[in-house]
Amino acid sequence: MAGYSAKDITVLEGLDPVRKRPGMYIGGVGSPGLHHLVWEVVDNSVDEAMNGHASQITVTLHKDGQSVTVSDDGRGVPVDIHPKHKKPALEIIFCTLHAGGKFEHDNYKTAGGLHGVGASVVNALSARLVATVRRDGFEHKMEFRAGTPVGKLEKVGKARGSGTTVFFRPDPEIFPKTDFSAELIRERLEIASYLHKGLTVTFVDETHGSKDTFHHPDGIAEFLGRIVGERGARAVHEQPFTLFRDNGLRLELAFQWTESTDETLKSYVNGIPTGSGGTHELGFRSGMVKAVRNYIETHSLTPRGVTLSAEDIREGLTGVLSVFIADPQFQGQTKDRLNNPEVQAAVDGAVRPSLEQWLNQNRSTAEQIVGRIILAARAREASRAASQAVTRKTATGGRTMLPGKLSDCSASDRRGTELFIVEGDSAGGSAKQGRDRNTQAVLPLRGKVMNTEGMTLAKVLENKEITDLVTALGCGVGQNFDIARLRYERIVLLADADSDGHHITTLLLTFFYRHLTEVIRQGRLFVAVPPLYRVDIGKETFWAVDDADKERIVKDKVRGNARAEITRFKGLGEMMPKVLWDTTLNPKTRRLLKIDIADVLATDRVVSDLMGKDPQARFHFIMDRADQADALDV
Fold it and tell me: What is the pLDDT of residues 91-105, one digit of tens each?
């Protein structure tokens, strides 16, 4: 405590808090935080459109891939002098936290940006930002660097129309990487065009020389059709349920049941995606479940011997929920969860009677839906019965009936343990001999596992390789999943370093993503990176994971008359146990890739395109990225 006094207290003024602690305002300085800058500027333009002042938004990703311009035909940011602060309003908005026109409802009935920090945060975290305003017959411009004005507001000249254009380049001193993802921006902009009928959004991607214009007059009903199509799961009923209400709370809703085992709900508040849900989602689920239960009970459709749970009713449901409210209470500046308690009752009260009436008016559709729900309940009951019939070792001990081909580890404590899922008995044999038997278990799978994309859980569990894997993991699947029962701290996918091995890894990743998503979310799933080549140069040995790595090693390490002897492994089974330990299993020398879901929507789309039943989507996905692919193994 000695020497700690008032002079040691630091007071951050202006935009210094943003540059000092950017994570408080944008969630972090990784890719999500970087792209959050784009969302903040776009949301301001969308707010103009949402309140009837703009109809067109153009976003340009410039050729360097590290700078963006957002332009709209709205009213234009005010440029007159603020009566109290004696500065142009534009300068105050871009240089002062909690300054904006959305704290009162005279200017904006509803808005996504309510904290008054969006524009100033983007400015603070940009190496350069230029704001151009067309307003009252003139064009005005002001430039900033790291949140500080470079000169005064300049009246450039006469201009027609009105609107705001913001150019910004994120500061590399703040962000480790400042490369924007064109695909991520394009996806977000198209979603905005679905959520706001009549809005035209144009994305100019100078990095690829492309231009896309999005305009969806049917709104979220079109969006729902796209989501169902991309998921590759057949819809149970052809006509989706849609709802529009605007009585204090504006509500737009579209959903239908599919044969998928997952519930997929995309929710938005004032056009902002709420990935973590909130009270609007709770209200929807509550009202939807009540309506379905009332219909089933009224028409005496409850099956004998089966209790229908809320999860059974929601299984396979795919929907889009969009609400617009005057005073949303978001959880944090990243706005990924809605906290308004009154919204839950309002959404529940709107959905329940409307859905119940729709079911009664569409009896054949309602019977299809109820049949789907009963099948889900029976599958859950059967899965639970099967789970109870199989005794297995849990993380806390006990005897089990584990798969015979599993070579388990001997540690009784789950901490530090790993399960390696390997390709084939040959590789499994090398891994079993080379592993640390105390902490490392090995489960060999025969050949390529089934593609589980778009398949029901009941169908998936008919596959012996998958059921062996589920049994070895110990955490169950579907309704019986419990992450606390996972028998290992890490799950590692270990396949050959060639194209066949990559395919097997992709199939396993698809299974985990669709049916054991929480294992990924909890940071438990990894992919091992075994070598494809051994490079001997003199008395030194190097390991290369691919062709590019091999060429780099040869270029950097071969000197004088030395020669490189290169051995290409046909598979992990070719490796001696000690070599496999040194290169792939040893925690001190191996390389593991941790699997994470940075963006659910983008991940979902990639899995659907690559692994779904639609070959056209797969063809376009591959052709769009052909220049990024390595040469195929022959």
Answer: 888 988 865 443 333
Q: Residue 577: is it exposed, middle or buried by C-beta count within 10 angstroms (0-12/13-18/19+)?
A: middle
Annotated catalytic residue within 43, 252, 496, 609: 496
| Extents of the domains making up the chain | 16-214, 220-385, 390-530+593-597
Catalytic residue list contains 312? no
Provide the CATH topology of domain 16-214. Answer: Heat Shock Protein 90 (3.30.565)
The rounded distance, in Å, linking the Cα atoms of 541 and 564 is 10
- Confidence bin at 123 (pLDDT 50/70/90): very high
Rounded distance between C-alpha atoms, residue 269 and residue 330, angstroms: 9
Q: Quick one: fold of 220-385?
A: Ribosomal Protein S5; domain 2 (3.30.230)
Average pLDDT, integer, range 442-458:
82
Question: Which residues, including other chains, have CB under 8 Å from residue 529's CB and lie 6 or more apart?
Answer: 497, 545, 584, 590, 591, 592, 593
Angle in degrees, CA 28, 31, 36, rounded to 5: 70
Q: Which of 139, 252, 423, 465 is catalytic?
A: 423
496 is catalytic: yes
- Provide the whole-model pTM: 0.57
Domain boundaries 390-530+593-597, corresponding CATH code = 3.40.50.670
pLDDT greater than 70 at residue 214: yes
Catalytic annotation on 500?
A: yes
Kind of pairing between the strands at 200-205 and 564-568: unpaired
327 catalytically annotated: no
| Residue 243, helix vs strand vs coil | strand
